[in-house]
Amino acid sequence: MKERIRKKFAKLPLSTRIRYSFLVIILPLAFITLLVAISVISSNKRYEDMMNSAVLASEFSVDFKKDYDYETYLVIVGNKTIEESGLDTLIEDANRVVDGIEKLTTSKDNADRLSSVKKYLSNLSSYKERIEENLQEGNRYEDNIEIWENDVQIVTSLVRETIFQYIFFEIREIQQARDAYQKFFVAFLSVMAVLFVGILTAVVYMSYAIPESITKPIREITDVTNQVAGGDLSVRANEYEDVEASVLSDSLNTMIDKINDLLAQVTEEQINLREAELELLQAQINPHFLYNTLDTIVWLAEGNRQKEVVEMVKNLSDFFRTSLSRGREMVSLSDELLHVSSYLKIQQVRYQDILDYEVNVDESLYAFQIPKISIQPLVENALYHGIKNKRGLGKITITSEKETDHFNIVIIDDGIGMSSERLTEVRQGLHDATFSPQVGLEKEKKKNMYGLLNVNERIKLKFGNEYGISIDSEYQSGSVVKVRLPYRMEAGE
Predict the structure, then answer these.
(1) Sheet of strand 407-413: strand arrangement
(2) Rounded to an integer, what distance in angstroms lies between the CA atom of residue 221 and that of residue 365?
(3) Domain positions in the chain
(4) Helix, strand or coil for residue 384?
(5) Between residues 457 and 278, which one has the greater pLDDT?
(6) Could you give the CA distance from residue 456 to residue 434 in angstroms, rounded to a whole number?
(7) Smallest Cα–Cα separation from 470: which of 411, 396, 399?
(8) What is the widest separation between alpha-carbon atoms in the chain?
(9) Three-state DSSP class for 374?
(10) In the predicted model, is pLDDT for residue 438 greater than 50?
(11) What is the pTM of this model?
(12) Consecutive H or E run containing 278
């Protein structure tokens, strides 16, 4: 039953649960306050009525008997007329007090006493009328004195005694009511204390349980969003019974899935774009080299150096044949070395006074795969930015290093080298610049790094970020470029 209530409560909207939580706290307190108010108002009303009754009774003149007896005697002896006496006023005042008390009294005995007082006052009125009649007839002094002594004085005594009894019993009832109220109040306070402790316990529990049921899913969803913001897209929000939390968690999970899909799509598009940029750069490099080579062939032909022209054309044919490689992106290391050797032979004809080279690569590595046109751009970079800037003959050496899980192709030149500042820029470009003239280092600084970035990016795209180019250089001493590659054979071999 408890679990069913909890689940039903959890499925309520957040605003409804908050309203219920307030009602659970407010309604018991309002109930207690209402009980206290009703009890206090009822007790105060009863006490006030009894006090008002006693106060009105006290207004009944304590000298009523003395005043009425004396006024009656003065009328009898002829010192005052009925009209001049205060008998009617005394009777009216007494009746007014009794009528007011009757409206307030709740005791049957006191109500009976008040009825007796009204009868006594009525008798006094009739005695007054008899005395008045006797006075009108004359010579009835003795009869009036007898009425005064045997009737009037006795009845006024009864009125006084009855009023005193009324006040006594009314005061006693006030005391009894006070005692009963005190006992009731003590019992009421005991019950209220127990109820208050119970309600306080329930309020304390619900003040934790209800906010916790609201904030716990929000905290968990917040933790998931923080992890997503930190780059972890493998996390997922839990499923909740709460309406709002369920909507939030479902929306968050859907958003994470869409982000993953978008990232995969963007990554694929970036790879395709970068490959297209690299292919565009290669298309720009090859025509440039072709123009220079054709100029050299023309120059050799004009000098009637036919044997060298034939050799140049053969090397140029080998160069472009290996460049095309029947449309393959990956070639064997032996084909790549043939490609770079053809390039060096062509360039040695053009720069025969300053260029010497040596290719000394372990033949056991020849069968491993490498992205085509990976070594030639590095050799070209060594020639144009190293050897050509040095006075005198320079040498480019291509060698290899075998490691446990990879091998290195090493291009060494003894050209001009580079300053430490320029070396830092090159290393930074290789480390964090994608191959685009508008990304990473500014275009001016990258213009002499296209070959390095081209090769580095293609190797990383094919084999992963742990592979690629590293470089060392010292000004006036030369440079060493290492191409880190995996031991990877062509598929099916």
Answers:
(1) 355-360, 394-402, 407-413, 478-485, 468-474
(2) 53
(3) 2-220, 287-485
(4) helix
(5) 457
(6) 9
(7) 411
(8) 192
(9) coil
(10) no
(11) 0.48
(12) helix 243-302
Q: What type of residue sits at position 342?
A: S
**Residues paired with 402 in a beta bridge:** 407
What is the DSSP secondary structure assignment for residue 8, as one 8-state letter?
Answer: H
b/e sequence 103-135, b meaning 16+ C-beta within 10 Å: ebbebeebeebbebbbebbebbeebbeebeebb
Q: What letter does residue 63 receive in the DSSP assignment?
A: T
| Domain 287-485, CATH | 3.30.565.10
- Please give the C-alpha separations between residue 318 and each of 262, 263, 490, in angstroms, as whole numbers: 44, 42, 22
pLDDT, tens only, 30-66: 777 777 777 667 666 665 666 666 666 665 656 788 8
Which residue, 299, 300, 319, is CA-closest to 309? 300
Where do we find the tokens 């004195």? 145
| Residue whose structure tokens are 């998931």 | 224
Among 322, 485, 306, CA closest to 410: 485
Q: Is 90 exceeded by the pLDDT of residue 326? A: no
Amino acid at 487: Y
> Torsion angle, CA of 177/182/186/192, rounded to 10 degrees?
60
Q: For residue 276, which of 147, 413, 457, 111 has the smallest C-alpha distance?
A: 457
pLDDT tens by residue, 93-125: 888 888 887 877 777 888 888 888 889 889 988
